[in-house]
Design brief:
The chain is an alpha+beta fold. The chain is built from twelve helices and ten strands. Strand 1 and strand 2 form a beta hairpin. Helix 1 (about 5-40) packs antiparallel against helix 2 (about 45-70). It is globular, with a radius of gyration of 29 Å.
Length: about 375
């Protein structure tokens, strides 16, 4: 799952094949030249020469096309978050994305009641249950049974869905920023990359409710007025926790020089002349399917509602740059990002990483062993 590594492998293969092809062509031409001395009248036709050149060019073009086809890489996965009937986000142990979305949204809701009310309109299912399994304002939706075109018939209020999209987008940028900081700090060079902060990002990114709230200067936020140690304006503060657990986190991301962030349709795009990274987040209110007994054994609650979020990460590379460039130091972070993406966001990868299936198998075997052992003792 490393785009640059894959492209590097194809580059090496391409060069090796070109070298072999040149040597083969030289060998064939020498043999042909030797034969031509014996049959001079048969080898003076320029058409044969042109045909031979065309064959070589054809082979080179085929290899270039094959190399060019490896310019695009895509990951499609599904993240999961869980709420209770009252719309409160439930902690999912050991799941990085689940922990972050809970931490971020709870901070935003404590600071901005309007966003909290917006969230509750879509996710509070318990306030009007009146003894029924679910209220009349809510229908559990499965993406397996409901077509996208019919979803508006079942969802009464999707106004809070934008907060899920904004939160995932913020979490991705924060995760990428941390990875960038670690990667570029190891290079120990500051000349060939830019650090983008809140004042450098385009206006559209501040329309993201979560990014705008979390990265807004703490001097302008009520929850940090009484916070000690924030009066020194010369101090560069990256993270701060105020009253009620509200957090400030400085927006900062390092990218190779001349990189920009833009939005096209629903995609967040980080691009440079040598690459494009697309992040697409899609949330339509579908319920997620949890593994057997997961709610009881791992969450510790049964009255929960799991939701699934579709996330797509697409990397497009400029193959001709990578074909001839030798110094990839400032772009190898793309491999790090691509390789670690699923471990952070994918719920299926999370289930595999914690060994849930094996743990559940062991639990079932232990339970049956206990029953058999108990029966054996009773029979004696």
């Amino acid at each position: 799952m490393k785009p640059l590594y894959t492209l590097r492998t194809h580059k090496t293969t391409f060069y090796n094949n070109v070298y072999l092809m040149i040597l083969l062509s030289i060998g064939i031409s020498l043999i042909a030249n030797t034969i031509s001395h014996f049959f001079p009248e048969q080898w003076q036709n320029t058409g044969l020469l042109i045909f031979g050149i065309c064959c070589i060019i054809y082979v080179i073009v085929i290899y270039i096309i094959d190399f060019y086809r490896h310019r695009s890489y895509k990951i499609q996965t599904e993240a999961t978050f869980i709420t209770d009937d009252n719309g409160n986000i439930v902690h999912i142990p050991l799941y990085p994305m689940g922990y972050e979305i809970k931490r971020i949204l709870e901070s935003v809701f404590r600071e901005n009641r309007a966003y909290h009310k917006l969230w509750l309109k879509s996710f509070d299912k318990g306030s009007s249950r009146k003894g029924k399994k679910y209220s009349q304002n809510y229908v559990m939706i499965s993406k397996v049974t409901i077509e996208d075109t019919d979803i508006h018939k079942y969802i009464k209020n999707d106004s809070g869905f934008c907060l899920v999209h904004d939160a995932i987008e913020y979490i991705f940028i924060d995760w990428l920023s941390t990875a960038q900081e670690r990667y570029f700090s190891e290079l120990k060079e500051d000349a060939k990359f830019d650090t983008l902060t809140r004042k450098d990002i385009p206006t559209f990114l501040l329309e993201n409710k979560i990014i705008n709230t979390i990265s807004k200067p703490f001097e302008e936020r009520e929850k940090f007025i009484n916070q000690p140690g924030t009066s020194d304006s010369n101090e560069d503060i990256h993270f701060l926790q105020g009253e009620d657990g509200v957090i400030f986190q400085k927006f900062e991301i390092k990218l190779p020089q001349n990189s920009i962030i833009e939005r096209k349709d629903n995609a967040l795009i980080i691009k440079n002349r040598n690459y494009k990274i697309h992040l697409i987040v899609e949330f339509k209110g579908f319920n997620a399917s949890l593994p057997n007994a997961f709610a009881d054994l791992f969450i510790g609650k049964t009255n929960i509602i799991p939701y699934t979020v579709k996330i797509e990460l697409k990397v497009e590379l400029n193959p001709f740059f990578f074909l001839f460039a030798k110094d990839w130091r400032y772009l190898n972070w793309i491999d790090v990002m691509y390789d670690k993406f699923l471990d952070y966001f994918s719920f299926n990868n999370y289930i595999k990483n914690i060994g849930y299936s094996q743990a559940l198998t062991n639990l079932v075997m232990y339970k049956n062993f206990f029953i058999i052992n108990h029966r054996t003792k009773q029979s004696k």
